[in-house]
């Protein structure tokens, strides 16, 4: 299977070939969430994928607790359905434990029994949302001599938490505070997701892929054993580099020559970060990430299904300026398509303002 064929499969499964008319929670479940360290990025990711996307739909899901912001794959914050938050966290907890143990804070707590104070901290977060610094101060007051900084960081890895609204809302903003998953969603009544389920979910949204791709996406190890257990329930291919690829039966495999529209991806988009080998979507070139400035936006541009430019949007007086920097030379037709999609992006990001799309020359 060629890299171009893999790229088209990724675009189809990531809903980047055609914008679809599907409910936001259904799309979040299909994608196994959206990376969300930057609070508003999921809205742009959904605009890229959904026809007529209304940010108010995600806002309503978050305020009704059907969708949450929480720490999951690769120990990063994701916007996911509440059901996935509850099912994924137990499976991914070993990744969080391992990551924290490797930090300087984890090293400082090595050999110490801090279970009681961690449980106390979880109780504090359940009573009212707190930021990590505020939690640290509270623990320091209650336990003089405690390495409160290290424990507060440990709590953020050991205790399942969510960042409640207004954090992540399109129509509001809020501080990065934590409350426990149990306090926000109630105790889980379902079974944790199994490794087999996780692999299947990943391949549905990202396949075909290698075992290493799956591991890079989620942070878990020893998934080759899981793939072997799945056996005939997966189909298998070879990449043009000889890599062994696995996939779910019936997953879309578009013709490699299927037209791919221009897409302005936000930073940390799923389509770029979820593989060990990103060559299916990342073009070799002079990629320079642009700075959006205070309150600005930044990201990458897919042209013919591959990352071939970077972009940034910022306010300049009454005008919102979108700057696009190609990483490789773009033909005139592609430049026209980039400018057109850039204009639509500005209508979404800054409705009612003056807009200016500036397409630079490649270097």
Explained architecture:
42% of the residues lie in helices and 17% in strands. A 5-stranded mixed beta sheet has the order 8-9-10-11-12. It folds into 3 domains: 3-185, no CATH class; 195-247; 282-359, no CATH class. The chain has 363 residues and is an alpha+beta fold. The longest helix is centred in the first third of the chain and has 20 residues, at 82-101. The radius of gyration is 22 Å and the shape is globular. It has 15 helices and 12 strands.
What's a quick, concise take on this entry?
The protein has 363 residues and is of the alpha+beta class. Helix content is 42%, strand content 17%. The protein folds into three domains: 3-185, no CATH class; 195-247; 282-359, no CATH class.
**What coarse outline follows from CA principal-axis ratios?**
globular
**DSSP summary, beta strand count:** 12
Percent of residues in beta strands? 15-25%
**Could you estimate the helical fraction of the residues in percent?**
40-55%
Largest sheet: spatial strand order: 8-9-10-11-12
Order of helices and strands: HHEHHEEHHHHHEEHHHHEEEHEEEHE
* Rg over alpha carbons: 22 Å
Sheet having the most strands:
5 strands, mixed
* Structural domains: how many: 3
Low-confidence stretches: none
Helical run tally: 15
In angstroms, what separates the terminal alpha carbons?
Answer: 32 Å
Overall average pLDDT: 95
- Return the structural class: alpha+beta
